[in-house]
Amino acid sequence: MKAVALTRYLPIENPESLVDVQLDKPTPKGRDILVEIKAIAVNPVDVKVRAPKDTVEPAPRVLGWDAAGVVQAIGPEVSRFKVGDRVFYAGDITRPGSNSEFQLVDERIVGHMPQSLAFEQAAALPLTAITAWEALFDRLHVPAATSLPGKSILIIGGAGGVGSIAIQLAVKVAGLNVIATASRPESEKWVRELGAQHVINHFGDLSAQLKEQGFDSVDYVLILNDTDHHFPAAAAVVAPQGTICTIVENAAPLDVSLLKAKSAGFVWEFMFTRSMFQTADMEQQGYLLDRVAGLIDNKTIVTTVNQVLSPINAANLRQAHATLETGRVIGKIVLKDF
């Protein structure tokens, strides 16, 4: 089967950083399904995993953690899917990724694809939708499917992949008052179209800008970029008994003592936790994706694809990685068709 892989971790400008390869087609066992990949999306995790280092892989390593495709075969213990089903998922960071013609994935972390979307539109959703959903409803414990009059959330990095979904879920599922950060006219336009009621600039003084918008504090803060830089401001603006969640690892220790007087909480969201540790509630990701598909099909939320490249090959994946590395991507970059 065709695949895009690496054996060395090189700068993306190097043509050997991602290469076209031929690999054996895998066979499903247990609860695995074999998916024929129709479209994939690229995320910051791809760039982080591929970042230059001295490691050399003994065999080609396939990256990629966003896919939409068709079930081609199922393992003997599979119960949720049958051959021919259209599916979408983010996969498992401990296993070969989705940048290949066929991929094995545990059925518990797979969702039935939205009926109203093409494969390339669906591929933009899984990783960001799972991350945003888990951050809001599992980590911050925002009540789902109910209105919270007066409750507010600051989403730092609103125009990116996760932010684009988090804004929609926060507004349309949870009924929160959303303040999103954006630093350019085009990104401000994007987050407002997705439902953010207020927009501030993450390069400015967050506390002062919030006050200008009428907020002395916010009930929830979701940090989607540069935790080290934004944590002090988040601690300053979060309300007493509020909560901060981040998805971005810190480079230096964070001063969580800033939260003590407020009895405020700080939590992490890492969407690979359930699959990495085979948690007892691992199947919740599959059910979560089914709920997202329903929200898409009833037009409560929309997909966030903003650029589509074709075909799926090393050259186009290198281009997508290079674009992501600029840090100025709005929405999601998707590739379709091998």
From TrEMBL:
The keyword Zinc applies. The keyword Zinc applies. It comes from the Bacteria. InterPro entries: ADH-like_N, ADH_Zn_typ-1, ER, GroES-like_sf, NAD(P)-bd_dom_sf, Zinc-ADH_QOR/CCCR. Residues 13-335 form the Enoyl reductase (ER) domain. SMART domains: PKS_ER. GO terms for molecular function: oxidoreductase activity; zinc ion binding. Keywords: Metal-binding, NADP, Oxidoreductase, Zinc. PANTHER family: QUINONE OXIDOREDUCTASE. Belongs to the zinc-containing alcohol dehydrogenase family. Quinone oxidoreductase subfamily. This is Zinc-type alcohol dehydrogenase-like protein. It comes from Collimonas arenae.
